[in-house]
Amino acid sequence: MSHLEVQDIQSIIASGCGNLKAAAYVLLHIQDAPLARQWLSNLLDRVQTSQDPPSDLCLNIAFTYEGLTTLGLHQSTLSTFPTEFKEGMTEANRSRILGDHEDSENDPKLWVWGGTNPQQTRVHILLLLYATDDEQLDEFCTTLVEQLPKGGVEFILKLDTLTLKE
Fold it and tell me: Where do the domains of the chain lie?
């Protein structure tokens, strides 16, 4: 069995963010890979890992296969990912299995994001943002989004959630 590098496991995987009642998800597109790599490098200190103590804010990051490819991840690493991750949910057979049939209301070309419509901006990065309340979350999100243009990353969409009640 391989050794887990717990310092590299994000908090959402290890323990969730149940103590933080407000959440939003920000979809991003990489426009300039070298700038985006630098932006991500600068953001790393803010990503909460499984070894960090709980705090009032949490940032975790997820990537699409296309995003990792765009960032220039080496092919030897890219080849280790499962086919399902590489192809995504819009691959024809997978869409059929999931009930996302062509010419139906679930057709991936009709999706607001992540679908097959060639007019859509491709999602490369997902920022998972958590905070103790909506006001703190909005400030956190605004601060991060304001940095995007300098980081070679384009804002696509913010997915808001409902604040969980006690």
Answer: 21-81+122-160
Read off the pTM: 0.89
Q: Sorting pLDDT into bands at 50, 70 and 90, what band is 13?
A: confident
The span from the CA of 65 to the CA of 153, in Å, is 16
CATH number of 21-81+122-160: 3.30.70
